[in-house]
Amino acid sequence: MKQIFRFNSISEFHAFCNLPNSEHPLISLIDYSKVQYPADEAELKWIQNFYSIGLKRNVNAKFNYGQQQYDFDSAVLCFISPLQFLKIEINPNVKIEPTGFLLLIHPDFLWNTSLSKKIKSYDFFSYEVKEALFLSDKEEKTIADILKNIQQEYQTNTDKYTQELIIAQLELLLIYSERFYERQFFTRKKSSHELLDKFYEVLSQYFENGKLLENGIPSVKEVAEQMNISPNYLGTLLRIHTQQNTQQHIQNKLIDYAKERLSSTHLSVSEIAYELGFEHPQSFSKLFKQKTNQSPLEFRKLFN
Q1: Residues forming beta bridges with residue 31, ordered by sequence position
Q2: Residue partners of 256: CB distance under 8 A and separation at least 6
Q3: What is the pTM of this model?
Q4: What pLDDT score does 171 carry?
């Protein structure tokens, strides 16, 4: 079994990549062209105990989610959160010189700041690398300038304002990233609409193939896995294009199916609830009333 490396500190990661010692124990901006993974490893697996934000070009490695066609043939920005499993396949036969930056932030650096909790609200830290942010030249410059400002601050200043200024730059970077991600959802319309079509297809299959009886109501995670994307990415896609999250879509589909069964069959409410994967009819009735302002029986009376 392939070894899984674990990096508890930024200095451990520096040593693993044959980099000089980090200048700050809790934050570091790495020149990606200087990263040297172990030469005898074609596949690397690791878990890190810190955040990383990577701005990369010309990477001769396949990250574990594969490759896709994108609108921007330029820099890639990806986000990794602490304790997230990462696997990289390195192709030693492809000689490409990668460039870019890798910003590492230990959670302790964020302690007692505005970002300590807020950073967890940025969904893209749970996206997969295939869902990375692809930047235009202008967007890349914006992100690169912020990264360099962060580095300059921890290299040249060590006063009471250092942490606050770095946090402000980090917040700026994350806000820009959120804006650029939203742009990507719209500029890659074909890809986005293909995913939406796939979502509706996967959801319909649960109702048409008897999966609800076998497995119960599908979870957001199950639907996302069927689509080979992360739950957070699916949720963001749906919110931007439909103004509803994944759970709301699943519930809407349930209610549509329930309406069809209530209006066209003589099945009892309990039998329909069972068909829909509910263990308790009361739970079904409660959801139905929340969504329609009617009980299942009140709805059925409209058709009698």
Answers
A1: 101
A2: none
A3: 0.76
A4: 97
